[in-house]
Amino acid sequence: MLSVESVQRIEMSPGWRRHRVEILDVAEGRVVVKGQRPPRSAARFWLMSSLARVVRHPLLRPVPAPGGAAAQATEVRRLQALARSGVPVPAVLHQAPDFIVLSHVDGVPLSALLTDTPEVALPAFERGLRGLAQVHAAGQYLSQAFARNMLLSDPGVVYLDFEDDPLEVMSLADAQARDWLAYLLSALWCVNVPRAQVLQAWSEVQASISVEVRQRIGGAIERLAWLRHLPNRRNPWGRDIISLQALADFLTDWHSSHSVSS
Q1: 90 with 103: CB under 8 angstroms?
Q2: 63 in Cβ contact with 134 (< 8 Å)
Q3: Among 62, 173, 217, 235, whose CB has the most other CB atoms within 10 angstroms?
């Protein structure tokens, strides 16, 4: 926890008010101060909902994240629940009406390593897979399970960004399947590794996934397959569709040689 002096210093700092997130050094060490996120634009949810309708799969629909005090309370609750389950996340050091203070984590975003040489990118991709499997084995889920929200640190992967809660709108199995789709969606389009090695890494990890979750991933494969036939260009579709195409192409290739258990 933080001393009164440290809290007062944070309260007086203009940085987190101006930029929402600020890294500060206080008596207890380096911390991350997060101001409340403004309410999310309704357009953001409309666009994501439209994308879910395009691919005809409910697991890709957005989870409500209203911002403000509600989002801050959700993040604190989820961080504390994950920590109790042994999932590596920043510690909540202080909660105020308009900001929270988290422990600072030294690490490299997984997304930054996926585009490195294959010798760097493949182990990073595999650590992301194994880390997510461990989160689920603890009975937990992430929601924003994108590579950019995973820090590679000693001794493992640390997870960020918990301002929404998928269990408000779906089951645990759905939330965990959604995690896998989010991770693969964020990684496959940019990972600098030959396809055969990526398929092998995924095949090894997916065997540990529960039957219930694998069934949901299998359902997603059927809904995504048609995206493979769109022209594979960044324009006019944009990165969202390009990423979905990469996911559809990968999962269809995998599914053609590995049947999903029922």
Answers
A1: yes
A2: no
A3: 217
In the numeric block, the tokens 């998928």 are attached to 166
Measure the CA–CA gap between 242 and 236, rounded to whole angstroms: 10
Global confidence as pTM? 0.87
Cβ(151)–Cβ(158) below 8 Å? yes
What gap in Å lies between CA 199 and CA 221, rounded to an integer? 15
Which pair of tokens denotes residue 242? Answer: 């390009």
Model confidence over 81-133: pLDDT tens digits?
999 999 999 999 999 999 999 999 999 999 999 999 999 999 999 999 999 99
Q: What is the DSSP string of 64-109?
A: P---HHHHHHHHHHHHHHHHHTT-----EEEE-SSEEEEE----EE
- Residue 10: other Cβ atoms inside 10 A: 21
What DSSP string runs through 202-232? Answer: HHHHHTTS-HHHHHHHHHHHHHHGGGGGS--
Helix (H) or strand (E) holding 158: strand 157-159
Name the strand (E) or helix (H) holding 157.
Answer: strand 157-159
